[in-house]
Amino acid sequence: MKLGLNMGYWGMGNDANNLELAKEADRLGYSVAWVAEAYGSDAPTILSWVAAQTTNIDIGSAIFQIPGRTPANCAMTAATLDSLSGGRFRLGLGVSGPQVSEGWHGVRFDKPLGRTREYVEIVNMALSRQKVKYDGEHYVLPLPDGPGKALQLTVHPVREHIPTYLASVGPKNLELTGELFDGWLGIFYSPEYAKESLNHIETGRAKVGKTLEGFDVVPSMPIVIGDDPRACADPIRWYAALYVGGMGSREKNFYNQLAVRMGYDEAAKQVQDLYLDRKYDEAAAAVPFEFLDETALLGSKERIADRMQVLAASGVTTLTITPTSADLEGGKATLRTAVEALELSGVGS
Question: Is 279 found in the same domain as 341?
């Protein structure tokens, strides 16, 4: 199992610290540094900035929003980043959610599975430097009733194939991840629940004659170091409450639905009710410690090492950690402790 760094969103006063964390992760031998985007900073600009100031660590999008770019534009960006970084780019994609897709990008959140399938097929076609011709339900290239012509990407990526990942939560999307992608970007990953998620991915792999061998399972997990695991859980309650309670509407919140499938149906409803009523502190307090402990790394180095053994046994191949310390030196110390915990666990690769 390898380690990754999740740098999250930029542009909120954390830019300098994030860059230093990326440099430290590079020095410590981390496998990849991921950058997110929502409706603030865009990921490609940040990834190029990080790539220019690191040497060995991969850079990855977690995620590029599918409604935010045409597939051809996505391929252009991926090829450029791979070229600039010397072959260190990993392309993570996701459909985002209906509120961002329709409210920010003006793209209907309909048939996300079919749209994702067509999108990645076009991206891969373009990156393989074929002339792009595609006749789908959601994308038609070139348009049949105008002067457009089938074009070929002029940028040469460093590698013949840029690794692709999908951020997915629901069963059908997980199956699609296994069928069409090289890896899975997971959130609220619980080793105790992982078998169900990985079974869906394995079903998708079987459709194309593949197994989980060589497939990258990449959950992103907050990490808080300390003597008392329950106290360590407090700084990440807001994050869990935001996703379970407020990342979507009452009718369509993928993270809330995931918590329900994990067995936290009553707590998920309570957190969502409180959050949507704007009782944010109460929503955070209502997140069960057990849920946080399952889906984060909390406690001493030794406890985290034990948890890493469980994660590796459940199928994790790249464990992406999110340091929670607002202090730069605290963040660096967390990165070092994670490396020491991995060495202690004996599951590093």
Answer: no
